[in-house]
Amino acid sequence: MGISHHRSDRDYVLGTHDAEIERLGFQHAVWRDEVLAAWGGAGIGRGSRVLDVGAGPGFATLDLAEIVGDVGEVVAVERSTRFLELLKGEAQARGHRNIRTAELDLMHDPLPPPSVGAGFDAAWCRWVACFVPDPGLLARRMAEALRPGGTAVFHEYHEYATYRILPVRAEITAFVEAVFETWRAQGGEPNIARVLPRLLVDAGLEIVSVRPLARAARPGEELWNWPAGFVRVNTPRLVEIGARTVAWGESVLKAVDEAERDPASVFITPTVLEIVARKI
Ligand SMILES: C[S@@+](CC[C@H](N)C(=O)[O-])C[C@H]1O[C@@H](n2cnc3c(N)ncnc32)[C@H](O)[C@@H]1O
Fold this sequence. Notes:
Layout: H1 18-41, E1 49-53, H2 59-68, E2 73-78, H3 81-94, E3 99-103, E4 120-126, H4 135-145, E5 146-159, E6 164-166, H5 170-185, H6 196-202, E7 205-213, E8 216-217, H7 225-240, H8 246-261, E9 266-268, E10 271-279
Parallel strand pairs: 1-2, 1-4, 2-3, 4-5
Antiparallel strand pairs: 5-10, 6-9, 7-10, 8-9
Helix pairs in contact: 1-7, 4-6, 5-8, 7-8
């Protein structure tokens, strides 16, 4: 069977189901302050034309739409029909007429231009480069979509294996190993930020800044539910896609429950690298 041009929603390793959408919304909320700082530093403001690359259900898109205002524009590109339908509904409900969406596969389709001007002022890409089989192509497409002087902002992992629980629990370590295995099996690379600066420079951008984002959370803190929540949502998904057994899944979920009840527990998050690059 050939690879279809637009893959079905089911093909994406993390899925597009309701629990994943809820997780993406929570994830955006706990990272929002860092994201707003990154966008501000990159000059995204009122009137900016911004491309949201692999926008998912568009939690960042909606924030960007508020920031750029009516005189600006946000174009959300994404492969999942389901995610884009959600975004379109929410944009309409909130009265955002400055959001456009394009359903496309970043590996197969060109990126759309802004409705005004030769290229976007900025492109935002978070946790997407880690899923595409050819991140160099992604970097080149994003570079082409920007105007000269336009800025690309990435939040991608450079050290996913820092994702662990202290005191160490073998089940959580095994969960992280399953993530590495399944992303790589679909052509992705969790530690993609390690090569992004090289790929961006080769695509005609100059690196403006890099910043590691390393965090840790204890039970009861809001942030705890980011690493713990991913374990809880992705473990059934790993079983569903046949990567692991039901019994394995139960052991992982039990381990995260037990860790949550232990006041000594610390969840260390997978380390993100913020990369800001400018088109020359
Ligand atoms: C972890 S989600 C991140 C979504 C969003 N950027 C955010 O930060 O909330 C990864 C997204 O990349 C999209 N994606 C993965 N590969 C893609 C491709 N080849 N073309 C278009 N979208 C893709 C998925 O459908 C999913 O919405």
